[in-house]
Amino acid sequence: MFSVTCQASSGTEDIFDLSFEQLLDVNIDLASKTNETLQSVPSSITVFSKQQIENLAVNNAYDLINFIPGFQSTRGDWVGAVPKDHARGVYLDNGYILMMVNGERLNEVSFGKASVYTPFIPTAIIEKVEFIRGPGSALYGSNAFLGVMNIITQKQANHVNLGVGEHGLWQMSANWHQQLSQSATAFVNLAVDHQTGEHHQGVRDPLESVYAELGVTVGQWHINGRFNRANLDKFINLGGYSEENKHKSENAYLSVNYQWWKNEGSSLTSKLFYGLHEIASLGMVLPSDAGVVANDFLVGPYWRTRELTFSSDYTHRLSENLDLAAGFELRKADQFQAGVYSNYFDLENGQIALSDQFYLPGGQKVQEFSDYALLKQAIDQNSLYGQVKWRYNSDLTVFFGARFDDVIGIESKLSPRFAFVYSGLQQHPLKLQYGESFRTPVTNELYSNDDVTTGNPNLTSEFVQTTELVWQFNDASFSSEIVIFQNNLNDFINKVPAPNSDAEFTFANAIDKKIQGIESTVTWQFSSGLEWGINGTHLFDDPENASFKRFASSFVTYRLDNILISLNANWRDRVDVDLELSERFSQSSYMLFGGSIQWQLTPEHKVSVKGMNLFDKEYAVFDPRVENGEVPGQGRQLRLTYQYKF
After folding, report:
1. pTM of the prediction?
2. How far is it, in rounded angstroms, from Cα 546 to Cα 544?
């Protein structure tokens, strides 16, 4: 999907009032830290505007990934059925996409992937999303591996949204901003989401989420604080379905940004960022009918992590044809709590005890658990990056740079990148892009010690080498893009059997593989009110872990006076997997439809009907941790929303 953005304020033009040529010139700085357009940016990138996010009718930012070439997002079995990523043929339970909000990372040091601690990001607070399809470690370090997703929140909106829908859904959000003085502004974003959920395997999949954000700008200072909490109880957790499953995550962030100067020739900004993460997850791992204990045995992590980061970013125009972007980052991160959440526990001896005399109804949170003591580790790093943009002539621009990360006590990594952007063929930009990225193993992979997994302290960082050839075509009403990519995967970490341990799995640098594929995108604006787009992905090699080898998405949007109608579809190819004991997972290809009807009653009032999986298609997604491989997909989600602008 190709999409763009505009500022959201009371005097803002609607996205459909902009010409197609204006949309192509929207500024993007995620992929280069210099202002670029979709035609000049040295990466494969997808951008979603606030209006297009609303058209797609998704509630959770992770669902946008299903409309990005090369990527998909589905529910998995691990800690509360959090979203799992399918990234250019890689479907592993690791953090291969760096998730950021306003340029601040969500991935932390215990699990690595952002969705464990932040499984729900409400789209009601989003202004724009930028997504790098490919490596980003040359600018952003670890986890910027196969993709980078930056969520930019609303900062200039004044409106209230209310919604009700199927399966006990209700939601409320509010966005407010105010000019406090000539040099001071403030904004607030608040979103509350509740859903009773659908029935799967006899249990529901409910959701409770709260998101709050406050930002204040005074002169060159900008202070931002965020808090979010999500509950994903019941449903599936650690591979088992149970009414007693629990999953609660909380995150708090505070950042202080100072702009030392900014002029036509250079700029310098510094940021101090603090993040605090907590997870309490209780999952069924042994049913009562196994005959070991009278009740289902549930267990999971009760962990807390934190990070403190100081960074500076500098840009300088060295000459008319040469621009420099550089910076450094000092990051201290650690897991400082490694407790356990269990319903069978000997509180006196501090151990899990599978005996009915130690049964604790509802489960008990234990802050410190001796078996997890090794998890309390620091993963600090010092980083430097630099990038040069060289306008060789009017037709050719060259980007080259690298980032050096010294991960204390683990290893050091250099992540280079280069890109050639050629615009000499009218309306047909060509790009050749190369980059390397890495992911540092996290505390769970290095030091875990439970009935499910045991860590491997000898792990080394994974790294990937990515080459992309990009062709684009753009005119006043039509745009297209074809990306041919090759990923060389090196030392990828995967779960492997642990025969000499009480745990079922351990971790190993077990995968070296090449994955090639092609991504294509077409967008056609037939008139000022009618737009159609489609994107498709085909992998030439089999995915790592059974996933979709081919998939596509499409949308059509039509506006008639004050009514906007949008329909979308997401198609996935069949998946077949041979399991142990002669069992087989098989899911035929399927298509999911969604859409919205938006009616602008007055400039201040809007009513919308939105839906996902409109025909309530039943389907399952493969997950290797589930005995039969099946995790049921979400059914139909219809909701009615009302927006008031003030």
Report:
1. 0.93
2. 6
